[in-house]
Fold this protein.
Amino acid sequence: MGAYSDRYWASADGLRLYARDYAPAGGDARLPVICLHGLTRNSKDFEEVASPIAQSGRRVLAPDIRGRGQSERDPKAATYDIATYAGDVVALMDALGIARAVFIGTSMGGLITMALSATASARVAAGLLNDVGPELAPEGIARIAAYAGKPASLASWDDAAAYARRTNGASFPGQTDAFWQAFARRTLGQDGNGAPVLDYDPAIASAVAPSAIPDLWPLFSHLANGRPIALVRGQISDLVTAAIAQRMKAAAPALDVTEVPNVGHAPLLTEPAAVDALGRFLSTAP
């Protein structure tokens, strides 16, 4: 994990939000990269991805979306929606003087990226979608809904690793105890005594209700219009099936599609196939 600075900014409705800011190495100036995490995750998701990108010469920002990590929780649960999250990202860019950026969005982060391409098109120079698309398979939504926002008994980090394996084991078959320990530390928080806790407001789970998911194809069309785009898909993903990926490619022939072998939802972006895909994507982005 590379060095980063802590950044805080205010949302339009007054929440104090947080992001990690990785400074770029020297060289030719390139547009910064904004990495957006999934529903129950946080900025730590990108700690092994951000440093290599920064070393390549791009500034990297990894925010905690409102209600997660070090960003404030909102007492008004209705604001836990994609449009509000997109507005928060624009506020971050304004606070840091960033007019335009390259986006990497995992799961929910990809939905935010697509929304930004429609509501703030000039801000999005390129977009990589990590295991998400304009269609979401119902079996994947059902799996996420089964644990998102539900209480978890986590008395120790061994409990946390077991919880991580229980909720994500189908996506990473055959992984070691050490993998799940690291996964738990990356995805969970800790209380004042160092014990693991869920690192998000349980109210965010309302976003996975089928009635909360709009028609996303128009948003995908905006993202695919005249900018570099890529899809990284877990080969055994239950959220973006092979058929959905094929429909995305048919709708956007320029889409660079990569499958990560023996991984489900969602790739960590540290797998060799994903690293190659990231390299290709960033080489084509401004």
